[in-house]
Amino acid sequence: MRRKFLALLLIITVAAVIGYIFIPEREEPHSPGPPGEEDEVVAHEVRRIMAGMSLEEKIGQLVIVGLEGYELDERVAKLIETYRVGGFILFKRNLRSVEQAVDLVNALKAKNQANKIPLFLAVDEEGGRVSRAPAELAGLPASSVIGEHNDRDLAYQVGRLLAQKVKAIGLNMNFAPVLDVNSNPNNPVIGDRAFGAEPQVVSTLGIPTMQGIQAEGVISVVKHFPGHGDTAVDSHVGLPRVDHDRERLQAVELPPFVRAIEEGADAVMIAHILLPKLDPDRPATFSPAIISGLLREELRFAGVVITDDLTMGAIVNNYEIGQAAVESVKAGSDIVLVCHDYRLEEAVLIALTEAVKSGEISAERLDRSVYRILRLKRKYQLSDAPVQPGDVEKINTEIGKLENVI
Fold it and tell me: Among 53, 98, 129, 304, which is least packed, fewest CB within 10 Å?
């Protein structure tokens, strides 16, 4: 018995040294330890894991991809086994029912077992018209409805319920809430996705929604920095141009993001918009002035930066997607999101690999992003262990109670 125990101990020790065990954070998300002590422990653990990662594994962490259909296929298997992608985003096209969704999630997790790092499993679950969850899970109101009530407690409860829907289908990241200020009533893409047309309203309600999502152990990604609310073009189709100067941005578009950062935002999504007064040549998606300058240096955001989907018209109709991904990482993004088309997903992964190997993206720059990504995965105790479907009846009952309030 003693020999068996020592053998098991040796296996665990060796695996930990070479980085094959991803040790989750034992504290609940957002429950800090003694000042400075937790940061030091986390930094040591993350660097230990990174020391055992190959170049390909590090590059894969910089990419979240989409997939087609309801089941794992050979292309998805290659994205995991060959490219070691950091995560997946799921859409209606992937989510037929709660049971099927969990089966798909567990298949992705099982395929990723050979990799060191668990997957981000993401979705856009905002409420209102932007909802990907299967129909058996009840819908939640659009953010504009929450805005009409201007109730922080209601916003927090909606955030928790959004996260419960996300968890019910086995996911761990929600691209919500929208922190855009809907100052342009003719905006073709934001509209009722925003909490309102005033920055104070968006801040007052967007932050508790974010915190409600986080409280359920789901990663909240606030969007679309530095503000998509006053655009006349849908970035899914073309590249919007916003001619506001810094003074206007500081007064209207930026306050909700400033507040979110102050209140513990873990991740920020960058918008596909051109702001000539900040950067005349590059959209925010790959603008050093906006990502590294404004967001990182001025607003002091130390979390994970994620692009909006690079397969949207704003990018693919104006730029080569692989180079766009490279430029985005060089500008300061940590993760590029590629939601559609396996060919484009592979093109991005190949372009990033070539850029790192050629030195266009330095090893130091790569490691900074990988560090932030692993720190976030550790904070939320991500795991590739299989999950069970959530309690649909209980969630729907809680959502039904909102009818008495809204």
Answer: 129
